[in-house]
Amino acid sequence: MSWWRFLKRKQSDDDLVQEIEAHLAAEIEENLERGMNEDEARRRAYLKFGSQQRVHEELWEQNSLLFLENLWRDLRHTTRTLLRSPGFTLIAIIVMTLGIGANTALFTLVRSVLLKPLPYQDPNRLVMLYEAMPEKNYTYNPVAGGIFHEWQRTSTHVEQMALIQAGRGYNVFSNGGLLPENIPAAVCSWNLFSTLGVQPALGRVFQADDDRPEANGTVILSWSFWKRRFSGDPEIVGKDIFLNEKPYTVIGVMPSWFAYPEPTSQVWTPVYHESPEDQMRALDSHSFHVVARLKPNATLAATLSELNAVQSHIRQQNSSPAIMTAVMGRSMLDDVVRDYKTPLYVLLAATGCVLLIACLNVANLLVARSSARRKEVAIRAALGGSRWRLIREQMPESFVLSFLGGALGLVLADIGLPWLTRTRLQGVGSAGIHIDWLVLLFVVGITLLSGTLAGGISAVSLSSNRVLDGLQESSRSNSGGIQRAKLRKALLAIEVGLTVVLLIAAGLLIQSYRKLQHTDLGCAVDNVLTMHVSLPDAHYKDPARRVAFFEQLLTRIRALPGAQAAGMVAETAPGQGYGGDDLLDVVEHPPLPKGQTLDAMYRAADPGYFAAMQIPLLRGRTFNDHERLDQGNVVVISQLAAQRFFPGEDPIGKHLRMDIPMKMSGIDTKTPFEIVGVVGDTPYRVGEDKRPTMYWPLYAGHFGGAAITLRSGRDVESLSLPVQRIIGQMDPNLAVANVETMRQTIHTSTVDAAFDSYLVLAFAAIAVVLASIGLYGVLSYLVTQRTSEIGIRMALGAQRREVLQLVLLDGLTPAWVGLGLGLVGADRAVQLIRSMLYGTNPVNWTIFAEVALLLSLVASLACAVPAWRASRLDPARALRTE
Fold first, then answer.
1. Contact at 8 Å (CB) between 508 and 844?
2. Which positions ≥6 away from 81 have C-beta within 8 Å?
3. Sorting pLDDT into bands at 50, 70 and 90, what band is 881?
4. Could you report the per-residue pLDDT of 631-653, keeping only the tens digit for each?
5. DSSP class of residue 190?
């Protein structure tokens, strides 16, 4: 039977009516001609034709699709049934909406961030390459410029290889009435964009001639910077803009979706034009990231094998211990999402638990509803209804609830997705994260799965071979009811177990977050303001001029009303970034064995920095005003550096010899630096281990940029604008960057941990509510089922306290079983979040015990009301309920 006949069956029925009427009219006319009267003629005609209703039914059945007919009938029956129980329907829909909506939002994020290909040409061929020294646990280390050149020259498996470095910054010259600003930038080799396979929205990308030291300055703008700073002027291509007071010709504008290597990158400049030649030739200055496009038939493993041979040869030909021993790599997608993979999968697993709990809860409700219809089902089975027919009538109810929950869940996900993206994925950006056809298929899939699971548990409990039991049972006490009670208890135990897993995971993540929040930075954090200022080489290449500017700036800042202390540090303030590190030698110590090195982060500070940041002086002294320029060959080291480099010794008066940073500054590297003091340790980032650190005098003039640190006794943020005014008065073309308090630094570093922990906690709270409602419902149902039994017990002398204990034990048993299952499952599951924990043991028995106590308390409260009601039953009335 065709769909066309099915869709046209109403018209066919109308045509049949007309045909029958025409046939009857003709027959009546013939009978009248034979001499019959009108009534007899009509009677004979109807007798000859037969049953019109049978003809209608046969034609209708021939033009019908039996499956759709039955489905439509079941849906109408289900709709009427659900409308008769609005409370049950509303609760079930809300539960399914929360579960499906949360899963949809998290699946969209996971697919868009972790599973969806990068928006580049043939992204599967893009890989990131790093130097490594596995024997020292150095993995995925940045690449030196000279090493990149050798890889690029010798590799036969790579189609293109490009170099990039983020973290640069430029002062944009104030023109057209606009204020100067410091913008984040990236430098890259000229072929970066062709390696990625992207084209600019306007203009062109770099060419080889742009990426030479002697070339004219060229720059490519980001879409947002072009729109914001230049009002989207299409004529900007070919014009000059001033970066660090030097002219750069704008050659292109990138598309709005392009944000590499960082979402904050505003401009790109050619690396060989911007970086010192010594740095680009160095084999031991690890400063860059390398992206490569493999040839069509090449593999990452083969490429790494080839480059490892090149690396080994470089190592053998050069004596510098800073040259890495190996090459490591990973796909570009894995590299981009490395910080988001585990948290997103954990959140997706948490939402999966919530959805499963929701399905079990709805299944429990459906089991309870089917219990009330047990006699009806038994009678229908006794009258010949097949088991499949009875099951089929149960399933539409769960599917209707699931699809309503799925539709509302999709709306909920669409509303919550932008918030979720902004809050959790600041580093990835929101481009391309939206609900599409694949997400819609996912929603349909989990909706069908949820409906099948929730309805199937209830439906399969119907068995036509228990018809006699159903017909013989009383209304409230029967073996069949006890069997269904066992099923509901089993479902409840699983709910409680999943809830325990979520609660323990949330507890561990919250404890980790709180430890991050209270990380000891080793310095003042309250009412401390930081901001970065960078002096362009165009006017401040002379070290003496840099020193004069920094000194005058600090003098004026310290004179501000409300300023208690101020200092400056280069490269970064505590908790705000790695900065840089260098190999060093202790002059008074014998040379280290081959392969062994000493390494420390480096900073530069003015004489007042340590006091301003309240970094304790543990030994010796800090810098003085006379240690400047060519008299600045002194160094202060951190406590960890003293312990690691001078075990059992007094480091004061010893000398260190460094290399790379001094070379880049044009300073004689043979002159050793005398250690004059030891100060407390500060971490370079919140949550990271502290590392040995050495400080040079800022007034030696080696650095052209530094972070200002200002401490006040009141709201320090109010001093931000006065400091910026001072800088503008000293040089109108300078702008500050990264203005934030130390508390904001801690918050920024821990916001992702806070989001993950509290979102998992929210899911766990939903699970607790669902489990407690389920427990209350199960016990209330059992009390109703056992009303007569309880009445008999009390009539035979049972005390109310004994009845209370009996019912409580009956309700708490599945909760305790679920608690045990959950604790065992959590012991395994928490290992998956180990990488997300800071200073927290995954198997934390305190949290395990607290969760067990909490669930026991919630279960007891959920059971208390039904148990109390059971203990208050009047025996006489209970017996009359039969």
1. yes
2. 397
3. low
4. 888 999 999 999 999 998 999 99
5. T
Region of 613 on the Ramachandran plot (φ > 0 left; ψ -120 to 50 alpha; else beta): alpha
Four-CA torsion 229, 235, 238, 243, nearest 10 degrees: -10
CA angle, residues 129, 132, 137, in degrees to nearest 5: 135
DSSP string, 693-727: EEEEEGGG---SEEEEEEEESS-GGGGHHHHHHHH
pLDDT tens profile 753-770: 888 888 888 888 888 888
- pLDDT band with cut points at 50, 70 and 90 for residue 259: confident
Strand partners, 368: none
When pLDDT is averaged across residues 97-108 and rounded to a whole number, the result is: 86
Cis peptide before 247 (omega within 30 of 0): no
H runs (alpha helix) in 383-436: 387-424
283, 323 in Cβ contact below 8 A? yes
Q: Which of 679, 390, 702 is nearest to 540 (CA)?
A: 702
Cβ atoms of 691 and 580 closer than 8 Å: no
Q: Which two tokens stand for residue 488?
A: 């509901």
Rounded Cα distance, 675 and 621, in Å: 9
Burial of 362 (0-12, 13-18, 19+ CB in 10 A): buried
The Cα-based distances of 234 to 237, 252, 267 in angstroms read 7, 10, 17
Higher pLDDT, 802 or 2: 802
Distances (CA, A) of 870 to 787, 790, 808, 812, 859: 8, 8, 10, 15, 17
pLDDT at 541 over 90: no
Tokens of 796: 């035979």
542: tokens are 């002379």
Q: Give one DSSP letter per residue of 108-144, joined into a string.
A: HHHIIIIISPPSSSSGGGEEEEEEEEGGGTEEEE-EE
Q: Are 530 and 740 in contact (CB under 8 A)?
A: yes
Average pLDDT over residues 42-55: 66
- pLDDT confidence bin for 416, thresholds 50/70/90: confident
Q: Are 69 and 420 in contact (CB under 8 A)?
A: no
Q: Are 658 and 602 in contact (CB under 8 A)?
A: yes
Task: Specify whether the CB–CB gap between 438 and 491 falls below 8 A.
Answer: no
Helices (H), ranges, 50-179: 52-62, 66-83, 86-110, 145-154
Residue 367 corresponds to which amino acid? V
**Angle at CA 155, nearest 5°, toward 153 and 156?**
120
Q: Give the whole-angstrom CA distance, residue 842 versus residue 851.
A: 14
- Residue found by looking up tokens 């708490």 in the block: 812
Three-class SS state of 49: helix
The terminus-to-terminus CA distance of the chain in angstroms comes to 53
Q: Could you tell me the two tokens for 237?
A: 């291509």
- Where residue 774 falls among pLDDT bands split at 50, 70, 90? confident
CA distance 493 to 500: 11
Please report which residue ranges of 425-478 form alpha helices under DSSP H. Answer: 437-459, 467-472
Give residue 269's pLDDT: 96
What is the tens place of the pLDDT at every residue in 186-207?
Answer: 999 999 999 999 999 999 999 9
CB 772 within 8 A of CB 858: yes
Confidence check: pLDDT of 668 > 60: no
The Cβ-side half-sphere exposure at 605, using a 13 Å CA radius, reads: 29
For 836-882, give the secondary structure using H, E and C: HCCCCCCCCHHHHHHHHHHHHHHHHHHHHHHHHHHHCCCHHHHHHCC
As a whole number of angstroms, the distance between CA 343 and CA 756 comes to: 7
Query: Which pLDDT belongs to residue 83?
Result: 74
Tell me what the pLDDT averaged over the chain comes to: 82
